[in-house]
Amino acid sequence: MLKDELLDVHHTAVCVTDFERARDFYVDFLGFELEGEADNRSESALGDVVGLKGATIRWAMLRRGSHCVELFKYYQPEGNRTPREQCDLGYTHMAMRVRDVDAVFEQAVAAGYEPVSTPRVLRGGKTKVFYLREPEGAITEFIQFNELG
């Protein structure tokens, strides 16, 4: 069974148009470390793996703890540039567990990032969360888990 082969979750991939701005968001604001970066990657196996023959990309792997974010900027082919809504089919956001969601919210606003709302208490007080629009419209959730006695 697959569950016997699955070790852990390695990375989440994010496709962007402004590579430097996206990389800076993850590295400078979220504290990810740059593990590797390459420009104009176009090996034929890449196109085979992603199902896009002739794909040419700029790429980076960023790590924070045990999780990585893989950044892609496609030079070829050009994709849909409309950010997804949370109700759209497929993956919609990445969540970061934080100690103090209000402090993160204040830092995000001070840094010029666009929150979807202020932090809100959910799940009967078990969590406090807010969503933040990344520089190109993708969503990152910041979630604080509250200890309830």
From TrEMBL:
Domain VOC: 8-145
Gene Ontology molecular-function annotations: dioxygenase activity; lactoylglutathione lyase activity; metal ion binding; methylmalonyl-CoA epimerase activity
PANTHER family, sorted: METHYLMALONYL-COA EPIMERASE, METHYLMALONYL-COA EPIMERASE, MITOCHONDRIAL
Domain of life: Bacteria
Taxonomic placement: Bacteria, Pseudomonadati, Pseudomonadota, Alphaproteobacteria, Hyphomicrobiales
Species per Swiss-Prot/TrEMBL record: Nitratireductor indicus C115
A Pfam family of this chain: Glyoxalase
UniProt protein name: Glyoxalase/bleomycin resistance protein/dioxygenase superfamily protein 5
Gene Ontology biological process terms from the UniProt entry: L-methylmalonyl-CoA metabolic process
Annotated TM spans: none
Gene3D superfamilies in alphabetical order: 2,3-Dihydroxybiphenyl 1,2-Dioxygenase, domain 1 (3.10.180.10)
Keywords from the UniProt entry: Dioxygenase, Metal-binding, Oxidoreductase
